Amino acid sequence: MENRKIYFDNASTTYVGNEALREMMPVFSNIYGNPSSLHSFGRDAVNLVDIARDRIAKAIGAKASEIYFTSGGTEANNLAIKGLAYANRHKGNHIITSCIEHSSVLEACRQLEKDGFIVTYLKVDSHGLINFADLLHHINSNTILISIMTANNEIGTIQHMQAIAETAKEREIIFHTDAVQAVGSISYNVNAMGIDAMSISSHKIYGPKGVGCLYVRDGVKIQSVIAGGKQERGVRGGTQNVPAIVGFGKAIEVAVRDMSVNNKKIKTIKEYFVKRLTESISDVYINGHPAQRLQGIVSVSFDCVNAEAVLTMLDMQGIAVSVGSACESGTIEPSHVLKEIGLDDVLAKGTIRFSFGKSNTKEEIDYLIETLIPIIEKLRNISPLRKKKRKED
Ligand SMILES: *Cc1c(COP(=O)(O)O)cnc(C)c1O
């Protein structure tokens, strides 16, 4: 048996693309000045940071002055939720978000609740969509912030961004979106889309880890959430990670440039996977919205198997996938997202996320399906649940 390694976990992280890598590598040792320094070493560094800032702004239709570098998506979400809430507290103390947000949004909201803010966590339907009437119903005169992710990282569902943004705008409520999964798959123009703040992470779009940014529309008040220096115009203290920022800037430029080619490629792979999967294995259910979704993320519930066992057995054959969300593995509870879309416990615990990237091939899908068939069969054969269900049939 040849020793293969196949990666179907692109929603957890991606490799660093060649073009980004090539630009960032020399920076580590050659352009090592502190961007805040006033001498030429500092100026060289700040020039590179500014080029990256311009590229990121251009990629989402923003101005360079609206981009604040952070250590990634988690920090960008924390900065957005807490920084916008505290800076606008004089206008009200109510925040609306959804119950399927990334933990960095949900936990930031829970922290705010301990400090006098009121948070509404909108429910979602079985496809993972929030209900628009429900959103309207919960808005009140104290609502200062609506934060809804563009696309979900576990099930891939894309929300009705336009309607949410328009509603927020009409009422002068700040609209933030966690765009970490969606950037590179859907095109953004923050002005046309009415987005006031948006979180992006580099390592989900073939850039280096540990860097990301928050876009905040000029004129929207935000305050720093960590004590420190005056970097990033006082909004995010701490010396910028110059090589990572350079890689991030290139990665987002490449992601936008190649978006339609990559989307087409990934859609083909995904459709081939779904076809082969449903033809080869019985009692599988695909989660998320059937049409309004990212192509790269396919969440599959296998009846009467333990997803962690599947993951381990696939891993032994060199195939990488994830169960629920990687951020939450280690806990035995099924993910909050799967619960909120109404999956029962058995299906939730049998759910695997396959996430495809621009380098995956049909041939890798064939290998995946051939590996998966006997694994599911074996696990179902020893499943007490399966035996019980068979008897009842
Ligand atoms: C990965 C992810 C994050 C966190 O980004 P990091 O850069 O890993 O901190 C936030 N939101 C979503 C939707 C994600 O998928």
- Helix/sheet category: alpha/beta
State Rg: 22 Å
Beta-strand share of residues: 5-15%
User: What's the CATH class label of the largest domain?
Assistant: Alpha Beta
Helical residue percent? 40-55%
Low-confidence stretches: none
Q: Per the principal axes of the C-alpha atoms, what is the gross shape?
A: globular
Task: Round the mean pLDDT to the nearest integer and report it.
Answer: 95
The count of strands amounts to 13
Query: Which ligands appear in the coordinates?
Result: pyridoxal-5'-phosphate
What is the CATH architecture term of the largest domain?
Answer: 3-Layer(aba) Sandwich
Determine the N-to-C terminus distance.
Answer: 39 Å
For the sheet with most strands, the description reads: 7 strands, mixed
The CATH topology of the largest domain is what? Answer: Aspartate Aminotransferase, domain 2
Query: Within the largest sheet, what's the order of strands?
Result: 2-8-7-6-5-3-4
- The ordered string of helix (H) and strand (E) elements is EHHEHEHEHEHEHEEHHEEHEEHHEHH
- Total helices: the number is 14
Q: Domains counted in the coordinates: how many?
A: 2
Assigned CATH superfamily of the largest domain? Type I PLP-dependent aspartate aminotransferase-like (Major domain)
